[in-house]
Amino acid sequence: MPFQGSPGSARVDLGFLEPQHGLQVTVDESPPSKDTEQPINCHSGRGSLRSEGRGLMAVLVCLSKVPLLFLLLYVFICSLDVLSSAFQLAGGKVAGDIFKESAILSNPVAGLVVGILVTVLVQSSSTSTSIIVSLVSSGLLQVQAAIPIVMGSNIGTSVTNTIVALMQAGEREEFKQAFAGATVHDCFNWLTVLVLLPLEVASGLVRRVSYVAVTSLPLLQSGQEAPELLRVITEPLTKVIIQLDKSVITGLAMGDEQMRNRSLVKVWCQSNTHTIATNVSSFGVTGVTAENVTLEIHHEKCTHLFVDSPLSDLAVGLILLAGSLLVLCSCLVLLVKLLNSLLKGQVARVIQKIINTDFPWPFAWCTGYLAILVGAGMTFVVQSSSVFTSAITPLIGLGVISLERAYPLTLGSNIGTTTTAILAALASPGDRLVAAFQVALCHFFFNVLGILMWYPVPVTRFPIRMARFLGEQTAEYRWFAVLYLLLCFLLLPSLVFALSMAGWRVMVGTGVPFVVVVVFVAVVNLLQARRPQCLPVKLRSWTFLPLWMRSLQPLDAVITRVALRCTKIRSSQRGHLAPVLPQLSTVKLLEAGELIDNPVMISLSQVNSSQTIEDGRSTRL
Predict the structure, then answer these.
(1) How many Cβ atoms from other residues are within 10 Å of residue 209's Cβ?
(2) b/e per residue 229-239 (b: at least 16 CB within 10 A)
(3) Of 43, 69, 116, 138, which is least packed with CB atoms within 10 Å of its CB?
(4) CB 379 within 8 Å of CB 416
(5) Cα torsion 137, 141, 143, 148: sign
(6) What is the pLDDT of residues 278-287, one digit of tens each?
(7) Alpha helix (H) ranges present in 343-365?
């Protein structure tokens, strides 16, 4: 029997329940009353409001991170500027004295090493190349002797971003990528120098090309200065901390001994120099002679922190070095964490796709050259290749920028940093303008020729492979990064400098066998990877060599043992065993018949007699 509902109801026939009699059920479709609807709507409204509140809060948090990101980047760049000032205070006068030795600079290999060491000391290739241009414009240095120094300054400037990469050593994969992205700059510079320096000594290639460019292009009027686009933003902070009188370094390089007793810390920010003619009478000499006397009139005193400090330049430099490194490390850690929180999920994938994706065919080859132009433009804006490459190093570590994309950006930064020397050359006197401009163009053509050698053909992009290998080594052995810095920027240049000063016979007798061995090992490694059948059976692997000649594991064992001994001594002084750093690499040592497999390699002689070593078990601290 059908159930009759209200006018707003619907009738449903349930005939499947009983074949003979259909059962009809009415379902009310009229709007529910407000009394029954209120609890449900109230509950769902709270949920929607709560979700909307969470979404709004997440958006606000993300938006607040953006100005914080720019603030950290600003402090990071300022700390790099202060770090450069600290290095100049600590070693600026030494750099000036090195440049003064023209007899040493006449040796091209010694000039190359001088360029490396001076740029490492002052932490700025722009400063070192500007000093070189000033020496050439003043006639104290010839163009031929200046070219190797310019090449060395190109190598020395890449130490900054390598130091920045060390700050990401906490995460193994990030450290691997960041160190590879930083050292691709080093590898490019070293390979270019190894090819172009012998060519320059033998044929004067760079000097001739730059001379043709100078004589064929109309020169601009002298008196122009390098633009200070980024310095306008950073100076309000850095001028409060320290201001330097860079004319002291240039004066020492030009042989002005009066600058030796003058401090690099600027005291007077505004001063004028007046030359007046006075009559001078000497005792015991009849007559009066007229001489010109130079008077320096000071108008405004500087207001930075060290303006009236009794400390020496070295002490001020060390204080600023420690403070700037602390701020630099803190900013870099915070930048990495902030970028990790912003560039994750879909956002990171979109940014990586935009940055690392090539143009569609047939214009894919244009992508790298566009990246070179971007790197050159950004470096011209900030007027420092160190700042630009150091800023992209954390992004390389996070994987936002791939190593293949970072390589052309770095090449572009090498081009952009040459504009400082070019504009400094345009400020030279008219009679020395051609020579100074030629040196500045040598810097430019050195980088252009390097790009032509190591970028257009993908097979010749050896710096990428070399940097990736260095990144893998530092990921496995953390100490390798510090060893690399000391070896490439201090020990090796100093050794080459000493050999070059001993004479060409010693230099050739030592250098030629070393180069032959390096080339032989490189060729054998390439054949082992590509065509092992072309090699003798013994040369198809390096297993016939002792372990210390083909692996860093023995050296890692020594360094780990020393670190453990220092830890043990420090812990014994405290009266308890200190925990061992877990980041040291795992090595195995077969010693005294026992196999010890430990994250920090220890020997049986270091185990206390009270400790029990069970057979077949690993010894662990």
Answers:
(1) 18
(2) ebeeebeeebe
(3) 43
(4) yes
(5) negative
(6) 655 555 555 5
(7) 346-356
Q: What token pair was written down for 201? A: 């000594």
Quickly tell me which residue has 């070295």 as its tokens: 314
CB atoms under 10 Å from CB of 483, counted, come to 16
Q: Where are the alpha helices (DSSP H) in 343-490?
A: 346-356, 366-382, 385-398, 403-416, 418-425, 433-454, 462-476, 479-486
pLDDT per residue over 144-186, tens digit each? 888 998 999 889 888 888 888 888 887 888 899 999 999 999 9
Geometric angle at alpha carbon 493, from 488 and 495, rounded to 5° = 115
Residue 476 and residue 263: Cα distance in Å, rounded? 45
Please name the residue that has the structure tokens 């602390």. Answer: 326
Largest CA distance in the chain: 151
The HSE-up count of residue 375 (CA atoms within 13 Å, CB side) is: 27
Q: Give per-residue burial for 531-565: e unless 16+ CB within 10 Å, then b.
A: eeeeeeeeeeeeeeeeeeeeebbeebbebbbebbe
Between CA 570 and CA 610 the distance in angstroms is 19
- The percent of the chain in helix, strand and coil, each rounded to the nearest 5, is 65, 10, 25
What is the rounded CA–CA span in Å between residue 422 and residue 440? 5
The residues, any chain, with a CB within 8 Å of residue 270's CB and separated by 6 or more, are 298, 299, 300
Q: State the pLDDT at residue 49.
A: 58
Element (H, E) at 65: helix 34-100
Separation of alpha carbons 105 and 114, rounded Å? 8
66/457: higher pLDDT: 457
The token duo for 96 is 């000036």
Contacts of 519 (CB under 8 A, 6+ apart): none
CA-based Rg of the chain, rounded to a whole angstrom?
A: 34
Q: What local confidence, expressed as pLDDT, does residue 136 receive?
A: 79
What is the full DSSP assignment across 199-258? HHHHH-HHHHHHHHHHHHSPPPPS------TTHHHHHHHHHHH--B-THHHHHHHTT-GG
Contacts 24+ apart (CB under 8 A), 483-490: 484/162, 484/183, 485/159, 485/162, 485/163, 488/186, 488/190, 489/116, 489/120, 489/156, 489/159, 490/120
pLDDT of residue 251: 73
What is the C-alpha to C-alpha distance for residues 428 and 434, in angstroms, rounded to an integer?
Answer: 9
pLDDT of 585 higher than 50 = no
Nearest to 133 by CA among 468, 424, 400: 424
Tens of pLDDT, residue by residue over 327-340, are 877 887 787 777 77
The gap between the terminal CA atoms of the chain, to the nearest Å, is 86
Q: Is the pTM of this model over 0.85?
A: no
SS (H, E, C) 405-430: HHHHHHHHHHHHCHHHHHHHHCCCCH
Which of 443, 8, 493 has its CA nearest to residue 213? 443
